[in-house]
Structure formats: structure tokens, C-alpha cells
Design brief:
Length: 416
């Protein structure tokens, strides 16, 4: 007899805890003790001792000459645009299917966010939609690498070169990913990384901007350090009005320790995702987003499946997600919603300068982003894939259980 769904009162597939995140141990304790005992905890002088060490390791990790640590992965995008000198009031094209920080960073740089729809193939920014959005006011493009997909960097690099635009890669999800023989973040003029708590590489909070241009690196260093021009970043012309966006020594020390862990963690994720994909081959109703053959190493921040209600008796995606969570399987559908018309991108003119530009964001619609966000995408967090195959087997068991009894979810939906 088929077990009753947990959401209807049956036993859960899984009650055990999932692999903890973040992972930590003696290296992190030693790093924090080193900072504690130094008495030198903050970000000044900038870059400070731990931040300088972390920057060198991160630049090597990305294959870029320069990496500049900063306070978080939102300010990192603002810094990139300001270091490039994009004109105030100019337009920056990006995706609506992202965290609000991508858009708010554009506003903080004095620019106007322009949203272009995503491709349903990979849920990343659609280069054709970007082409249509570019005009004489456009200064930059920010594609976002999403989940386990990389944006089409070949198209975006060619497009920005041809139109004279700055290309900033939002790599908040893309630590360790590679497009061909180059690391994510190294193909754009800038690569922006987040070290927030859930990210593949975390320091709790923090960000990094990578670039290959020595003058842009100097401007980044100055912007991070309140606009100061210090030894090592005093040769760029003029002066910038900076921020205090320095990374603390605590963050930098943890970042260095976590960077050492990263290769083994990512290899474990790759092995488990490969097993998951092979096991789900031909599973009606759930499919993986196709892998671009030019991507030689995928990011594995969130594993996204595409949901088809027809194979689940017509049950809404959110009902299936609720059923999976009841079975002990962490997943969600609303990890991101389109930034307009409803989201954290609040159109409050007192806090959002873009709301004072006259752009009618409230009426904008992006059918592909809405389809992904509200109907198709099922997101599984990366710590699920840091265990062993028995963990993946629990996910597979729950998926089969829910699909086999999907018709019973229709009654649950009506009564919910």
C-alpha cells in the first residue's frame, strides 16, 4: 500500500537533519583567534592584513589579476559601476529574476535599472531581450548567473564590446563556475561575488569585485576606503567620493579558511548532482535546465528543476512544493520573484531614486520571469547535495511519493 502523503497526515520520508551549512572547524577557529589576538579587527588600513591575503587567494581562484574585498555582495555591484565611471542617470540593463540587490545596487550607483526578460531555457537574462532594451542612454549590462546556470557570456561580451558598454557579471551564485576555459567573473569587465551566509563561499557577509584593469582596481580600492588614495591605489586620475565598504578582518579570515574548503565541497556537490540527474532521467513532470555545452564547470548554488503540472495530475507547483517540504525535503518555488511589479524593489520615491525617474515600473510585465517564478521553478538548496547518496535517495523517494499521489493534492489545494 502506498504511504499517505505527510501533508495529509502520513509519515515523512525524512526526519533526519540535512548537512549543516556553513561547514566549519579548526581552520575557522584558528583564523578567528588569529584576528582576535592581533587586536586589528577592522578594515583599516585598507586593504588590511587578512583582507590582502584573502584578495590574493580570491584573484587566483578567479584567474584575474585583481580582487577587491568589500562589505557585501550588493555594494560590490555598485562599486563596479562606479569604478567604471558609468554616467549618473544612465541606464543599466539587467534581469528582473534576481535578488533585489542587483537592482538596488544600480540605483545606488546613480543609474536607472532597465529590466529585460529571461530565457526560458536557463532562466538567465536573454541576450535578445537585452539587445531590444539598449538605447543611447545605456551604459552597462549586468547578467546574473542563476542557480546552476551561467548567462551567455559569449553573447554578452560580444554585445557589450560592439555597443561600447560595461559588462558586470553578477556572480553571487557562481563561485567556481567556468565558461570554457575561464572562470565566472573573469569574462566581464568586472565580476561581483557575494559571501552572504547561504552562498557557496561564505564569510557570513561580504563581497568581492574582480577585474583585470589596473586603473579600475585602484578606483575600486579607493571607493571601498572612503575615497582615500593610498600607496598602491593613488595613480588613477582625479578622486572619487567613496564609501566605507571595507571588509573586516574577521570576514576576510573566515573567507580564506572557507576558500580552502571550497574545492572538496564543490566536488561533493558535483558528484551528488550528477547522481541526482542520472536518477531523474526520464522522470515525468520534473526536468533539469539544459547545460550550455560551453559551460565547463557549473555553479551549484541552487539546483533548479522545471515543473510540469500535467504529470502531477494538474496540481499547482506550490502544492507539490508544500508536499515535499512536509516530507522533510527542503525546496521552494518563490526563491526569487520578478522585481517588478511586486517585490523588495519598492517604488517608494523617498528610498528608491528610480521611482523618481518617471519610469513606469509598476506596469511592466516579464512573461518568462513570471512563468519561471510562479509556475515552473523548483529550487533545492546546495547543502542538500553536501551529504552522501542516501540523502539524494531520500529526495528521489519523496519526489516519487508526491507524484504518485498528486491527485490527492487537488483536494488539499481546495481545502487549504
Amino acid at each position: 500500500m502506498t504511504q499517505t502523503l505527510a501533508i495529509l497526515g502520513g509519515a515523512r520520508v525524512r526526519s533526519a537533519a540535512w548537512p549543516a551549512w556553513p561547514q566549519h572547524g579548526e581552520p575557522e577557529r584558528a583564523a578567528l583567534a588569529r584576528v582576535l589576538e592581533s587586536g586589528n579587527w577592522g578594515g583599516f588600513p585598507s586593504p588590511n592584513t587578512e583582507a590582502r591575503r584573502f584578495a590574493a587567494s580570491f584573484a587566483q581562484f578567479c584567474g584575474t589579476p585583481f580582487a577587491v574585498p568589500c562589505a557585501n555582495g550588493t555594494v560590490s555591484l555598485t562599486l563596479a559601476l562606479q569604478a567604471a565611471g558609468v554616467p549618473a542617470g544612465s541606464e543599466v540593463v539587467t534581469t528582473p529574476y534576481t535578488f533585489v540587490g542587483t537592482a538596488s545596487a544600480i540605483v545606488a550607483a546613480g543609474c536607472v535599472p532597465v529590466f529585460a526578460d529571461i530565457s526560458l531555457r536557463d532562466y538567465c537574462l536573454d541576450p535578445d531581450a537585452v539587445e531590444s532594451a539598449i538605447n543611447a542612454r545605456t551604459s552597462a549590462v549586468i547578467p546574473v548567473h542563476l542557480g546552476c546556470s551561467l548567462a551567455d557570456l559569449e553573447r554578452f561580451r560580444s554585445l557589450c564590446d560592439r555597443r561600447g558598454l560595461i559588462l558586470v557579471e553578477d556572480c553571487a551564485h557562481a563561485h567556481g563556475a567556468r565558461f570554457g576555459d575561464r572562470a565566472a567573473g573573469s569574462i566581464g569587465d568586472f565580476g561581483s561575488f557575494s559571501l552572504q551566509s547561504t552562498k557557496l563561499l561564505t564569510a557570513g557577509e561580504g563581497g568581492v569585485v574582480v577585474t583585470s584593469d589596473p586603473l579600475w582596481e585602484q578606483r575600486l580600492q579607493s571607493l571601498v576606503n572612503c575615497g582615500r588614495k593610498e600607496i598602491g591605489y593613488a595613480e588613477f586620475p582625479g578622486q572619487v567620493l567613496g564609501h566605507n565598504a571595507r571588509m573586516t578582518e574577521w570576514q576576510a579570515a573566515i573567507g580564506s579558511a572557507q576558500l580552502q574548503r571550497f574545492p572538496a565541497q564543490q566536488e561533493r556537490r558535483r558528484e551528488n548532482v550528477a547522481y541526482f540527474e542520472a536518477s531523474l532521467e526520464g522522470f515525468a513532470g520534473l526536468g533539469f535546465l539544459p547545460v550550455d555545452p560551453r559551460v565547463s564547470a557549473r555553479p551549484l548554488y541552487q539546483i533548479i528543476l522545471r515543473y510540469d503540472a500535467d504529470a502531477f495530475a494538474g496540481a499547482a507547483r506550490d502544492a507539490v512544493i508544500a508536499a515535499l517540504n512536509a516530507e522533510g525535503i527542503p525546496c521552494c518555488g518563490d526563491f526569487y520573484e520578478p522585481l517588478v511589479p511586486r517585490s523588495l524593489f519598492a517604488l517608494d520615491p523617498n528610498t528608491n531614486a528610480a521611482a523618481r525617474t518617471g519610469v513606469d515600473y509598476a506596469s511592466q510585465r516579464f512573461p518568462n520571469a513570471e512563468r519561471a517564478a510562479f509556475q515552473e521553478a523548483v529550487w533545492f538548496p546546495h547543502p542538500v547535495f553536501l551529504g552522501d547518496r542516501s540523502d539524494i535517495d531520500d529526495v528521489l523517494k519523496a519526489l516519487r511519493k508526491v507524484r504518485d499521489q498528486a491527485s490527492r493534492l487537488l483536494d488539499w489545494e481546495r481545502s487549504a
